[in-house]
Amino acid sequence: MARSKTKTAFVCSDCGAEHAKWQGQCSSCAEWNTLSRVSVGPVPEARVGFAGTTAQIQKLNEVKADEAERISTTLQELDRVLGGGLVPGSVVLMGGDPGAGKSTLLLQMCTQLARSRGVLYVTGEESLHQMASRARRLELPLDGLDVAAETRAEVIAGHIETHKPDVVVLDSVQVLQMDGIDSTPGSVTQVRETAAFFTRLAKQTNTVIVLVGHITKEGGLAGPKVLEHMIDCFMMLDSPAGSRYRTLRGQKNRFGAVNELGVFAMTDQGMKEVANPSAIFLQRGDLDSPGSVATVTWEGTRPLLVELQALVDAVAAGYPKRVAVGLDQQRLAMHLAVMHRHCGITLADQDVFANVVGGVRIQETGADLALLLAVLSSFRDRVLPRDLIVFGELGLTGELRPVANGQERLREAAKHGFKQAVVPYANRPKKPLPDMVVHGVKNLAGALEVLSRF
Ligand code: TYD
Ligand code: MG
To answer: Which partner for 120 in 24, 146, 350, 454 could form a disulfide, CB atoms 3.0-4.6 Å apart?
Structure first.
């Protein structure tokens, strides 16, 4: 039977697009210098007529589909992001900057899990001695967890086949290598091939495989896009500069909601779960200052209270700046145009800076109104009431659109002591709330009118 030869292709480490020839810029995502050579194995020929080699066709309703059994990680925040725990036979990729705390978090998980399950932690980056001393310092239970310092994929697979663990952590995917692939560890080819190899192994042996990947927010080396179609669940551990809080966000999940947010604090005792994140992200000082507004966003399945800050200042030089940290910069520019067009307030000669306190990133539109009111509060140098909570999506015609889970957001705010709220008209509660005055407004002008009465 004729076999096609092994070919080479060029894959973008950022978006995963494949190109036949090398080029300086990826024509798919327009990133520069992200293409690298990969070997593409021979494509097996379709085997028509070979009985037994094809999978049987079944009716979908005859396929056995038990509600997938979940293995709890013993860490509630991690379980939340996973959608209820680890699913046997699945592959999870945990990405994050070096030093974010991936190894610490997974070591904590593994030592706890190993009390009731077979768990293997394979480290290719740290020595076993380093791992043991870290685990001792964190006072984790050491007995039960199997560890190995290994980077060869075939050897690790051998360990998995003999020891049959329920959960395997591979720290990290960048140091793994496979025989027969003449490419350095960490290169796109190696990462792709080893990840594919372990994905097959996970399905065959019904083992949970957790891959650790050093992935920067920009995508970095052998970015998640190269792996995304293979793995079942991808989560990013974010470590905002200078903050001891770490947020774990689900980016893809075949077994649960995406965009779930888990919050941890890196302490000298390892990663501690933060059960009530609203309380930490909303720690405001005693001083009331203009430019600060509290909002409540919806992260996955729960509300999160955060403080937005804005600073408006006369243009220092050149074009006016619009800088947003933790928020969408384009939306900020858009809202300023809406405010100009529909309320006649222009910031054309002002620089505008906006920030989410605590280093969380807001990925939904519910913070639109709060952002604009923070900007206005700074511009007018007027302090907004401390017990005011604001949310709502702003449309281009200046209308305020309702957001999902409005009632739960209001309840969360009331629980944290907020006494008044400005929200989209359609999000106002049907019955008055006992401890909170809620102003439902239909558009931006309406919101400004309410504020002028404070
Ligand atoms: P680590 O888990 O090694 O990060 P990663 O595997 O994502 O690269 O975490 C390393 C950082 O965490 C390091 O800067 C030190 C800090 N750290 C603490 O602050 N407290 C601790 O108890 C531990 C174990 C680490
Ligand atoms: Mg590490």
So the answer is: 146
Q: How far is the CA of 328 from the centre of ligand 1 (A)?
A: 29
Ligand 1: lining residues by beta carbon, under 6 Å: 96, 98-104, 134, 138, 266, 268-270
Q: How many CB atoms lie within 10 A of CB 14?
A: 23
Q: Which ligand is nearest to the CA of 237?
A: 1
- How many Cα atoms sit within 13 Å of 243 on the Cβ side? 17
Spatial neighbors of 285 by CB under 8 A, at least 6 apart, are: none
What pTM value is reported for the model?
0.80
Hunting for tokens 């992001």 — which residue is that?
81
**pLDDT tens by residue, 43-75:** 445 444 444 456 778 888 877 766 668 999 999
Q: Whose CA is nearest to atom 22 of ligand 1?
A: 270
How far is the C-alpha of 78 from the C-alpha of 428, rounded, in Å? 33
Nearest CA to ligand 1 atom 21: 270
Helix axes 188-205, 153-163, angle to 10 degrees: 10
